[in-house]
């Protein structure tokens, strides 16, 4: 691999902030540019008061919903502004607070101003300030979308960039080449709505009735309405809870659950009715659930799908780069080592993919990448890196766990961060480079003991439809999948 001297970082969220800091501190790279399509840093934590109006397509994946833009034939150029949906708005809603204690969530060089849980503007301001405090504002290229990433000779990268000029409502397009690229582009932009028989027809029959939590901003949107919420992970839990507590919305709120969440007891709280997964939307608008129960179209005014997101890489030039990047069937980034390095493309790094501690674990990834590309740390052989993925797929299949979920309770987080910590190693004797953070006793204590919502651990007698033992069938029990105590991240 030729020396890496110029780096493009895609995204100015927490991943981009951690990356800019780690690469700059290495004092080795000549060019570091952070490309951010929004008007400011902050990523997921920017609040868009006007929610996106999204066309929902059941079962559709990002390569169908978020295709690449048509690139003008000759660059540089300035053309009419793009009008294609790019999913740039965020899902942040009124009343959203963080759910990870700040001592464990913040980057290690500065804490959030207070904690443990803070309103959404605190992490937004924190990320913005992180760039400024370190003097990295000058690395930022805002309103600039990376539209194409193509591998060129010498493991280098050719980027096609588009800057939106809001004043003239025009798009400037140009090209730049870099030695290495870091993907810190997040993965909560393109909403996912599962395929359900009849849902596509229902969407046409009742326009505006079905939405995704990405467009949820608060109960006011559902004034006097009877609402069905699909999903009970973090978004589903929070949306349901806000609606349930609001006098504006008609009660009870109905929630369709696929599995029991960490925060649920045996019975729903007041103002909430639980239903299982929807099996079908019939032609007359009736909603059928897996237990045979149903809701007539006249019993519901709004449906909110809180069924998560899928990562999108519309800029990845799969044809020229030789392969796709994301395996949507397996729901994982294809061909990574430690969720960070990509053996097939040694000058490509990915930050922010694993479901682990967020900002803090991005920092370990960023420092390890910076150290490897500055030549101050060495990865294992390509063969060993590839074997890591093979072994992990095997292990995850056996344990029925998701590839990028890095659990806390099993010690996985410890192992993962220890690997990155050791790989990065110490800064140089003269202080050049960042020191990877420690996971000290106070941080561990906060992770294990400070909760935004209490966790319900069912007992044999109380458990039904949830984690742990779920049904006593005489001399044997049905056990539903165990959920890690940080699985809500
Ligand atoms: C509703 C919600 C609540 C959350 N709450 C918590 C919480 O309480 N605690 C917690 O730890 N985590 C939480 N998370 C997870 C959150 O995503 C992470 O905390 C973290 O902000 C992710 O940072 P990131 O930089 O990896 O991605 P993002 O914050 O998504 O940043 C990616 C950036 O890349 C930019 N970008 C994307 N594509 C391009 C492109 N082609 N060109 C240029 N720029 C591009 C985007 O505009 C964005 O600014 C929450 C997520 C959501 C959706
Ligand atoms: N700070 C906060 O309080 C806060 C608030 C909101 C979101 N967030 C963050 O936002 C990110 C995304 O969270 P998310 O909740 O939007 O997505 P998510 O965690 O991916 O959850 C998707 C949910 O959809 C459910 N689901 C999928 N198909 C279903 C179906 N057909 N019927 C019923 N349920 C179905 C899943 O159930 P199974 O799990 O059983 O498959 C899961 O509960 C996370 O990082 C989260 O921490 C944080």
Automatic annotation (TrEMBL):
It holds the Pfam family FMO-like. It comes from the Eukaryota. The keyword Zinc does not apply. Signal peptide: none annotated. One of its GO terms (molecular function) is NADP binding. Keywords: FAD, Flavoprotein, Monooxygenase, NADP, Oxidoreductase. Belongs to the FMO family. This is Dimethylaniline monooxygenase. It comes from Ophiostoma piceae (strain UAMH 11346) (Sap stain fungus). The lineage of its organism: Eukaryota, Fungi, Dikarya, Ascomycota, Pezizomycotina.
């Amino acid at each position: 691999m030729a020396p890496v001297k110029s780096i493009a970082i895609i995204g100015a969220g927490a991943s981009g902030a951690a990356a800019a800091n780690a690469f700059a501190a290495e004092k080795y790279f000549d060019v570091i540019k952070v490309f951010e399509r929004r008007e400011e840093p902050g990523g997921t934590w920017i609040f868009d008061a006007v929610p996106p109006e999204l066309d929902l397509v059941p079962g559709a994946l990002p390569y169908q919903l978020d295709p690449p833009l048509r690139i003008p034939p000759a660059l540089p150029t300035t053309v009419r502004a793009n009008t294609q949906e790019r999913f740039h708005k965020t899902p942040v809603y009124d009343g959203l607070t963080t759910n990870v204690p700040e001592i464990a969530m913040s980057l290690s060089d500065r804490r959030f101003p207070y904690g443990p849980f803070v309103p959404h503007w605190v992490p937004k301001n924190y990320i913005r300030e992180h760039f400024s405090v370190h003097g990295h504002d000058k690395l930022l290229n805002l309103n600039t979308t990376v539209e194409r990433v193509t591998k060129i000779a010498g493991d280098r990268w050719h980027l096609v960039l588009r800057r939106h000029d809001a004043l003239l409502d025009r798009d400037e397009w140009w090209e730049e080449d870099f030695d290495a690229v870091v993907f810190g582009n997040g993965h909560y932009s393109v909403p996912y709505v599962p395929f359900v028989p009849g849902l596509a027809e229902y969407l046409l029959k009742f326009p505006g009735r079905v939405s995704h939590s990405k467009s949820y901003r608060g109960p006011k949107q559902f004034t006097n309405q009877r609402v069905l919420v699909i999903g009970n992970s973090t978004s589903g839990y929070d949306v349901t809870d806000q609606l349930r507590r609001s006098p504006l919305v008609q009660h009870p709120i109905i929630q369709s659950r696929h599995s029991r969440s960490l925060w649920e007891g045996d019975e729903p709280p007041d103002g909430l009715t639980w239903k299982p997964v929807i099996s079908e939307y019939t032609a007359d608008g009736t909603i059928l659930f897996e237990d045979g129960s149903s809701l007539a179209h006249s019993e519901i005014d709004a449906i909110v799908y809180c069924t998560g997101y899928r990562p999108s890489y519309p800029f990845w030039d799969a044809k020229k780069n030789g392969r796709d990047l994301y395996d949507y069937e397996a729901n994982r980034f294809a061909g990574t080592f430690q969720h960070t390095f990509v053996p097939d493309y040694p000058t490509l790094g990915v930050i922010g993919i694993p479901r682990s501690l967020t900002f803090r674990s991005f920092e370990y990834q960023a420092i390890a990448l910076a150290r490897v590309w500055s030549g101050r740390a060495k990865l294992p052989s390509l063969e060993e890196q590839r074997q890591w993925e093979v072994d992990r797929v095997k292990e995850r299949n056996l344990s029925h766990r998701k590839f990028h979920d890095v659990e806390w309770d099993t010690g996985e987080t410890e192992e993962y961060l220890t690997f990155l910590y050791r790989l990065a190693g110490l800064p140089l004797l003269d202080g050049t480079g960042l020191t990877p953070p420690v996971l000290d006793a106070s941080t561990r204590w906060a992770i294990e003991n400070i909760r935004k919502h209490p966790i319900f651990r069912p007992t044999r007698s109380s458990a039904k439809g949830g984690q742990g033992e779920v049904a006593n069938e005489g001399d044997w029990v049905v056990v539903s999948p165990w959920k890690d105590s940080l699985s809500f991240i």
